[in-house]
Amino acid sequence: MDVLIPDTTESAARAVALRLALAGHTIHTCRHDEAASACAVLDEDGPCPLDTAPIDVAVDVSPAPGARGPGARGPGDGAVCALVRRIPLVLVDPPPDHRLLPWAVDAVDATDIVAGVADVGAGDLPEHTEVATRAMLGELHRQGSEGLTTRVVVRRDAGGLVVELWPDPAMTRTQAARLATHITQAVRSHDRWARTIDATVHDDGSRSPR
After folding, report:
1. pTM to 2 decimals?
2. Quick one: residue 134, left, alpha or beta (phi over 0 = left, psi -120 to 50 = alpha)?
3. What superfamily would CATH give domain 126-201?
4. Of 68, 75, 61, 143, nearest to 107 (Cα)?
């Protein structure tokens, strides 16, 4: 999985990056040199990793108490850019007043970062899934089919989104495909940054997640 750690100039962040790299993840950063700015784009010829890599999770690492110098960055920076692009954010050892805590999908200890990233990367996206569910229910209501047991979730994959739909058995394949298209359009309106959006209609009898 491609993971963004915005700033790896401090030892705590470098240690987290190493843990994730050893677990097989590809690490991208906005700033790995203290002489560089906190934004790769502001450096001459510096590409933004959010533009060049299929990032699915962002990780912001809080430095150890007392480690931050007077000229160091505040919490966030590249993590804010990830949030703007609706990429799930995991905070590592955040203080209680971390300004991004309300928007993070998880907060973990450094020793739990590998499992935390794996869980977030494989899990559903709450906001996207809520958008998809509203679109699904609205379309079913329009069709007069509110009672159907249809379910949808959205997750990330390789920088894009996957919409998974479990239609009610009473729906035809054509109805399910049209519903999936309607949901996908709603998700695209919600997230214009995703590289791709693919829809999967589970019409093989597989059970929907609970």
Report:
1. 0.84
2. alpha
3. Cation efflux protein, cytoplasmic domain (3.30.70.1350)
4. 61
Amino acid letter, 42: L
Pairing relationship of beta strands 151-157 and 160-166 according to DSSP bridges: antiparallel
Cα separation, 191 vs 127, whole angstroms? 10
Per-residue pLDDT tens digits for 150-207: 999 999 999 999 999 999 998 888 889 999 999 999 999 999 999 999 999 997 655 4
pLDDT beneath 70: ranges in the chain: 32-38, 40, 43-45, 64-76, 146-147, 204-210
Question: Which regions of the chain carry the CATH code 3.30.70.1350?
Answer: 126-201
Residue ranges matching CATH 3.40.50.2300 in the chain: 2-122
